[in-house]
Design brief:
Elements: E1 13-16, E2 19-22, H1 33-37, E3 40-42, E4 45-48, E5 51-52, H2 55-68, H3 77-90, E6 96-104, E7 118-125, H4 133-138, E8 140-144, H5 165-177, E9 182-186, E10 192-195, E11 199-204, E12 207-211, H6 220-231, E13 236-239, E14 251-256, E15 260-267, E16 270-271, H7 276-289
Parallel strand pairs: 8-9, 8-15, 12-13
Antiparallel strand pairs: 1-2, 1-7, 3-6, 4-5, 4-6, 6-7, 9-10, 11-12, 11-14, 14-15, 15-16
Helix pairs in contact: 2-3, 6-7
The structure holds 4'-deoxy-4'-aminopyridoxal-5'-phosphate.
């Protein structure tokens, strides 16, 4: 494949407020409410062999994310599903990452947003693994993030809202600057939360442990992997996890639509092995998204 150009300078079609527009024309004005006040929500989903995995769950979450931010997307979940499929087809993509994004427009400036119109765009492009496969095979290295996931009473934590990614981007930037691949974030209480764009799982004595998503996204991949584990008779324990416990876990991995199942070799001072259980679930996930295992 030829060297990719920047994200605003490519061939193809982007669905923009109800119609497909040439890629380079899918623009917003600088005085867009979303750009100034983070009044924007988005999704990230992958298509495998032409099928968008858990598409309706993603479209539903997009709707809910916007509602949490106080605006209604003027297209139904079914219409968003159809638009996503249209984008894939128009760009002749079969394996792709897709980015639906909804935001408040430029009708009004200032913190108040009642006068703004909601907009929706959907883009898709070929995107390989989220983490370098060579690093991921041995397990990626996580830094410990300086920022913590905020308490539910301080931010709309169950919305996939752009504003919540400010601390994620800063944490990932700091991690990469220090030679790590990503960062593990704790929450406001000091409990283990998630990575900057993926949920976290731990393995100990054949059991799977994962933090309760009470202040971060309950990922669609997370729930898929929990089901896959239960289908294999693996016990899944969802609970508060404190950093003190991290040294007792044997394996760790991340889950996300972009990250899929990514093995973790270390998080801060704690090391993990890439073990059998993690490998099994990674394979089950791969089989599921590629249609070799039933998608419940
Ligand atoms: N947490 C964060 C912060 C994320 O950005 C993502 C990716 N959407 C996830 C968790 C995983 O969510 P999902 O499995 O639904 O992609």
């Amino acid at each position: 494949m030829a060297e990719q150009r920047t994200f605003d300078d490519r061939d193809g079609w982007i669905w923009f407020d109800g119609k497909l527009v040439p890629w380079r024309e899918a623009n917003v004005h600088v005085l867009t409410h979303a750009l100034h006040y983070a009044s924007s929500v988005f999704e990230g989903q992958r298509a495998y062999n032409g099928e968008i995995f858990k598409l309706t769950e993603h479209s539903q979450r997009l709707h809910k994310s916007a509602q949490i931010l106080g605006f209604e997307i003027p297209w139904s979940v079914a219409e968003i599903d159809a638009a996503c499929r249209e984008v894939l087809k128009a760009n002749k993509l079969v394996d792709a990452y897709m980015r639906p994004v909804a935001w408040r427009g430029s009708e009004q400036m200032g913190v108040s947003a009642q006068g703004t119109k909601p907009h929706l765009a959907i883009a898709a492009w070929e995107w390989g693994k989220y983490f370098d496969p060579k690093l991921a095979a041995k397990g990626i290295r996580l830094d410990i993030a300086r920022y913590r996931r905020p308490a539910p009473y301080t931010a709309p934590v169950h919305s996939k809202a752009a504003g919540l990614y400010m601390i994620a981007t800063l944490s990932r930037q700091q991690a990469e600057g220090r030679g790590y691949d990503d960062a593990l974030m704790f929450d406001w209480r000091g409990q283990v939360a998630e990575a900057t764009g993926a949920n976290a799982f731990f393995v100990r004595d054949g059991q799977l442990h994962t933090p309760t998503p009470d202040c971060f996204l309950d990922g669609i991949t997370r729930r898929t992997v929990m089901d896959l584990a239960r289908n294999r008779g693996i016990e899944v324990v969802e609970r508060a996890i404190w950093p003190e416990e991290l040294e007792t876990f044997e394996q760790m991995f991340l889950t996300g639509s972009a990250a899929e199942v990514t093995f973790v070799g270390s998080a801060g001072p704690w090391s993990f092995e890439v073990g059998e259980l993690s490998r099994t679930l990674a394979k089950d996930y791969d089989d599921t998204v590629n249609g070799r295992l039933p998608n419940r």
